[in-house]
Amino acid sequence: MNKRDSEALAARLTGVYHYTLAASEEDADVVLLNTCSVRDGADQKAIGKMQMLIGQARVHHRQCIFGFLGCMAQAQGERLMTLLPGLNLVLGTHRYHLLGDYLSELVQGKQSRIVDCGGVKECPPFFDEHLMAANTAAEEEDKDGAAHLSPTAYVNIMHGCNQHCTYCIVPETRGHEFSRSIDGIVKECRSLADSGVKEITLLGQIVTSFGRFDIPVSEDGRSGFVQLLDAIAEIDGLERIRFTAPHPKGYGKDLVEAYGRIPKLCESAHIPVQSGSDRILKLMHRGYTAERFLEIIDQLREVQPTIGLATDIIVGFPGETEEDFQATVDLVRRVHFDNVFLFKYSPRQNTPAAVMPDQIPQEVKEDRHARLLQVVNELAQASYEQKVGATVEVLVEGVSRRNVNRLQGRSRCNKIVVFEGPAEWVGTIRKFKVTRAGQYSLYGEPV
Ligand code: 5AD
Ligand code: SF4
Question: From the CB of 167, is ligand 1 less than 6 Å away?
């Protein structure tokens, strides 16, 4: 989500305000950190990084403008200014359309410090017109001959979330659910496909709720989200569709069937379960039981037996007993996920869980995290090893992160595949035979 916002903001600053992208932070006259506050670790990391950047600029006597954008800026506002004396700008998630103007004031020295977090509820979100303005600027650049730099791209389809999970800061920082129009999204995806993009990941805090207030369910029972998937699948040149993050409640019959019906929809799903204990799921206000989650997984595997499955889990939620934790371990074993993003619960300001009784001591969180991580890694390793000998279809994305002499891409089930090949392969879809499994990656030879 933040990555897409960053791309859109960069496109707007370069396209409309004539900034150019600096090669590194040290070369930049303006440094903006787009932050996330979903977990406390990310907050601390962003503050630490900003502190370091401001310190370095001071040491080298460089004049530079520093700004914080995103959820963390939204949540902390003025406090960041007190914490970081060299900071110039704090801009909340619903004020992005003002970024260019604020930067002009700072660059021209008319102001030295600006904090604007607006009110999440009453301000227009960074949609559709503002985001589209940014995208139009990017499209204009593309028309000048530059192809999209990567064969994969992210597209925001909705914003905010009304689910109000009791641990989550998103409803506070991102506000109410708001969906873009199918036409606007299709137009953006088509323009990306025209500039060479082969795979699009649709983004939103709760993508499966897309259009639920404005798009009626079709006569054949398809939700707004599935109608969007169908519309995007029609785009020529686009080969693959993914999305994140969905909510289990969105996996009705129509979405499960879509996996069997829409060839461009990759057989991979990242469905956050958060806990395997019904008692904890209720306290989290998730709106499903472990049994219902398992039913969804079984249905998906029936339609697509090789589907890659990932999830998010929080350990140490207030009141979580050893028995609740074991229920999560059991669910993880039963599903046999390919990947699990594991989090230790961290209290977020103004969320109901932060003031719930029975907060779990840090040592217990650490212990449960370590124990579950071991199970997760073992299961993931087994699922990667199971792929050895199989043939997988890979979209070649670029040079391998670990070894510049190799290329890498992702299989349809979302596993990284590393192989040797010429640079011309980037952006093409090819078949590889898996020769061995690494940790969270596969190695292959062309078929
Ligand atoms: N503490 C720990 N993890 C959290 N997440 C969201 N809020 C919190 C929190 N307060 C995790 C959830 C979510 C992922 C993006 O971050 O698992 O799915
Ligand atoms: Fe947060 Fe996701 Fe729950 Fe929405 S569905 S409140 S974004 S965890």
Answer: yes
